């Protein structure tokens, strides 16, 4: 067979050839779903009542964006994501720093931290639902031991969102700890010794050495957690079905489920999905923009 | 500028005694080199002076201050690390300025000091680069710059040249010596490379297994090693050690082994009587075994032998010969114009006034 191009150009092309099949499959599958989803979002379609989709143009988008409950759910989602991801990052960094310093039982601590992540979200949701029960829950029992008044947790419209955030933090902080710990352990020890001699306190070493060197890992973790928390559904569904009291835990995915999926408004469901995607992309872009060039040592 | 004193310093890591009773006085403005094979405790000693390792027992003084419990930042030292330990996310300027910023120097002063150091080291054009964009030699200069901007009392250098290629190492070796002359600061320098030790140090400290073997000026240590370890460690190729017996014939003493019997020059040793007829180790440096063709003095049976050349290695300025005679072997460094050929015999002369004798049991030198 006659070979085309110089050996050099063939070598340069090779990597593209190797990844091509997977790219085609991924783009094909996703692209189809993407296009199909978008075309559904432009219709009014209830598979049971009117099996033929009726085109409505951007009507669904207009309808959604003008729905105060939808806007409320955007607000809830942003508060939920900011609260849970913020707490997870802070606690995760503190946890990672502590685990890194452990001399004994490091492996045991690391492994046992995985337990919340290994639990199926449904189980975690159910366990926490029991913990947060207003009458029989463990949390209120502990509060009573401390002489503090009982809290309604998921039954109270003030506490429902913080409660949901609490569970998310419980479930996902270990993940953040593990990723940040891996990052911390890959940092070179020498700059710390140099900084010690240069006169840096521990706090200064953290501020001027650890944080800048960890930026890349922190940004990736932040992105992961933000994207996932914007889509969080399962535990919230179990703890605050229908958005909880006052619909104060009505996140976007809950909204999508309750207002579009359950009543079989397929067009609205697709539209809501698209808007969630756009919001996620926007927030991701903001995070990437704010941390532009993060961790670069070029 | 200050002297540094180590007073019976010990360092233990678990069951391992890394530094065993180190006593040293490093004079003000001195360039002292700690040299020894890996694991000899030289880096640990340096890190104890820096304050990066705690002392198990003993005292360390910088100037007149006992620094045992003083943190590194307050010891007024600067350190250069083997792998440079630059801050990868900071540019060269900030790498050098970091210590000054932490010490709250005024901005203008920082700028002046950094630029001055950069100028001394010839890195003014690299100030805005990140370490990743620098070559090994440039990184080493930045690491040096970071140390000199602080104008510390003592410089500690932990194998600063060992990550550089051979050619650059030679250049930087000379530059470091020049820098020391210019800065007139006390330097403690750790290396495993005896050439660096010989060429740079005002004094050398040879260490082995955590124990200081000998302290002295480079040539002093080279010419008068205290024991077989120092004799073998300092010098390339290393000193030849040949098993021999000391025999007396008439008034003369000889070192005798298989394939050789060489006369010990009178007056070379104080008193060898206790060693007569005993086994000793005869030490002779390769350059003190001379091709007879080039020996200017008298060649006799009691200072020369005929040996077989196993291998010869021409290095241009000299030829290294691997010789065997009887059951003994030796390495000789001879004139490049030697006629020695692999597999052939050659007559070599031993410069016996430069011979060494070591006690076979204690490995200590016999003087």
Describe it.
The complex is a heterodimer of chains A (298) and B (367). Chain A is mostly helical and 298 residues long. Chain A has a two-stranded antiparallel ribbon. Chain A is built from 13 helices and two strands. The longest helix of chain A has 35 residues, at 7-41. Chain A has helices spanning 7-41, 59-65, 68-101, 106-112, 115-118, 121-131, 138-145, 160-185, 190-198, 202-230, 234-239, 252-261, 266-290, and strands spanning 43-46, 50-55. In chain A, helix 8 (160-185) packs across helix 10 (202-230) and helix 12 packs antiparallel against helix 13 (266-290). With 367 residues, chain B is of the alpha+beta class. In chain B, 23% of the residues lie in helices and 35% in strands. Chain B is built from eight helices and 21 strands. In chain B, helix 2 packs parallel to helix 4 (136-149). The model of chain B has no long low-confidence stretch (mean pLDDT 92). Chains A and B meet through helix 9 and helix 10 of A and strand 6 and helix 2 of B.
Kindly report the spatial arrangement of strands forming the biggest sheet of chain A.
1-2
N- and C-termini, Cα separation of chain B: 37 Å
**CATH topology label of the largest domain in chain A:** MetI-like fold
Q: Which of globular, elongated, flat, extended, rod-shaped describes the shape of chain A?
A: flat
Largest sheet of chain B: 6 strands, mixed
Helix content of chain A: over 70%
Which structural class is indicated by helix and strand composition of chain B? alpha+beta
Low-confidence parts of chain B: none
The helix/strand order of chain B is EEEHEEEHHHEHEHEEHHEEEEEEEEEEE
Estimate nothing, just give the exact number of structural domains of chain A: 2
Please, how many helices of chain B? 8
The count of strands of chain A amounts to 2
Question: Based on DSSP secondary structure assignment, what is the total number of beta strands of chain B?
Answer: 21
The CATH class of the largest domain in chain A: Mainly Alpha
Strand order within the widest beta sheet of chain B: 6-7-8-3-9-10
Biggest interface, chains and residues, is: A-B, 21 and 28 residues
Give the overall form of chain B.
elongated
User: What order do the helices and strands of chain A follow?
Assistant: HEEHHHHHHHHHHHH
- The pLDDT mean of chain A sits at 89
